[in-house]
Amino acid sequence: MPGTIKLQIGKNKLSPGFFQTLENAFKKRENVKISVLKSANHSKENMNKISEEILKKLGDKFTSRIIGFTICLKKWRKKCV
């Protein structure tokens, strides 16, 4: 399926339910965009921490890119170095 799924991180931050939704999104798509809302205490410093936590939980086949307060995730077929 073409396109990108968009998710949001709010006051619950990185909950187990969020990761379940994220894993389900990657079953259908290769790209996911995550918007970090103000209620998640977003700041430029926290964006890197949030991105690293997500990548750590997902595994080696994923990469991220931060644009403003949006984290763009991509799933690859092979492990990323």
Look up the CATH topology.
Answer: Translation Initiation Factor IF3
Shape descriptor reads globular
Strand composition percent: 25-35%
Computed Rg: 12 Å
Helix count from the secondary structure assignment: 2
Average of the residue pLDDT scores: 87
Q: Strand pairing plus helix content: what structural class?
A: alpha+beta
Salient structural properties:
alpha+beta, 81 residues, 4 strands, Translation Initiation Factor IF3, globular, 2 helices, 4-stranded mixed β-sheet
Outline:
This protein is of the alpha+beta class and 81 residues long. The protein is 35% helix and 28% strand.
Structural features, described:
It contains two helices and four strands, in the order E-H-E-H-E-E. By secondary structure, it is of the alpha+beta class. Strands 1-2-4-3 form a four-stranded mixed beta sheet, covered by helices on one side. Helix 1 (16-28) links the parallel strand 1 and strand 2. The longest helix is centred in the middle third of the chain and has 15 residues, at 44-58. The model has no long low-confidence stretch (mean pLDDT 87).
